[in-house]
Amino acid sequence: MTIRRSSQKFLTIDEEGQVRLGIRAKGKGQREVTCLLTSLCALPSALCPDSDQPTRFLRFIVALAIPWLLACEPPGGANRARKVQPSQELEPAAPYQAAVDEGLGASVAILIDTSGSMREPAPGDSRPKYVIAQEALESMLDATDAFVARRPDFPIKIGIYSFSSSVRTLRPITSYNRAAIRSALATVPRPGGGTAIGEALAAARPDLYRAGLFRKYLLVVTDGQNTTGRSPDDVAREIWRKSEGAVQVYFVAFDTSPEKFAFLKDAGGDVIGAGTGPELRQALDGIYQGKILAEAPMAGEREKK
Fold first, then answer.
1. Is 103 found in the same domain as 78?
2. Which end of the chain is more exposed for a tag (fewer CB within 10 A), N or C?
């Protein structure tokens, strides 16, 4: 008699009442389980001359084994269930809820593209694009000093991230410090690899909810389109929907068409194109000073009420 759930697992009882239980995909494991059950079944036969006792024991073993057959995954089953394409991955476990009590202020996660194309020279410049981006971001963040002096009651927290085929946290989202920001920007890795824009958005988003401030922004500088991981279109729309507009996303399309990121208009965000180094500085200043620093205090005061 043979009871099967799949070709990977089996329970057999031969004419002599011997039980064999195992997993066919793993020969070694099969022998181990079979030997164990055979020994158990042989034990009552030796100890109990009454032939009915081994039969009862055998039934007991079968009763225990059947749930195992029905419930256990074959070898590798659990791992296979987790192997999904990046675009099909589930939303990260971090909730769209503040990890701490929130107060007035704005937290900004800056995401810098360090894919292979960022090592190419910037238009009108002999230096690579990632160097131009570093300098433009330093210049942009210098405006924070004047803002903090003018509004000491409205804290600004900045985090620096880089992304290529994967995402790196260069500086967690913490209170603005000019020297610390410059040090973090100096550690931007040399470009190489793909462009995981969607994954970068998804990785930085939970950190905004740990910063303890009402206003939350994602600012991306990229020169290309997504080549690996989840689509930035899907991730940005999901962030906008699940955060109920609390997280705003801004892109600067450096030496690439901003039309690639037109979806941001439908996700509460915006994109600005920049073809050269000076245009990049202008675009970043327009977003940081014209939108984030200009709108954050008013929005924060509305939250306080």
1. no
2. C
For strands 247-254 and 213-222, give the pairing: parallel
Residues 158 and 245 grouped into a single domain: yes
What would the DSSP string read from start to end of 86-100?
GGGPPPPS--SS-SS
Distance CA 122, CA 108 (A): 26
Statement to judge: residues 226 and 187 lie in one domain:
yes
**pLDDT tops 80 at residue 158:** yes
Domain co-membership, 130 together with 57? no
Residues 59 and 135 placed together within one structural domain of the fold: no
First to last CA, the chain: 74
292 HSE (CA, 13 A, CB side):
33
Hey, what are 115's tokens?
């894919």
What letter does residue 293 receive in the DSSP assignment? I
- Whether residue 260 is predicted with pLDDT greater than 50 in this model: the reply is yes
Compute CA distances 165 → 29, 160, 170, 283, whole Å: 39, 17, 16, 25
- Alpha-carbon distance of 114 to 195, in angstroms, equals 8
Give a yes or no: residue 91 inside a domain.
no
What is the token pair recorded at 58? 């055998």
Provide the mean pLDDT of the chain. Answer: 78
- Residue 180, domain extent: 96-304
Residue 282, SS3 per DSSP: helix
CB 112 within 8 A of CB 133: yes
Out of 49, 82, 115, pick the residue that ends a domain: 82
Q: How confident is the model at residue 123 (pLDDT cuts 50, 70, 90)?
A: very high
**Quick one: which of 270, 256, 204, 207 has its CA closest to 227?**
256
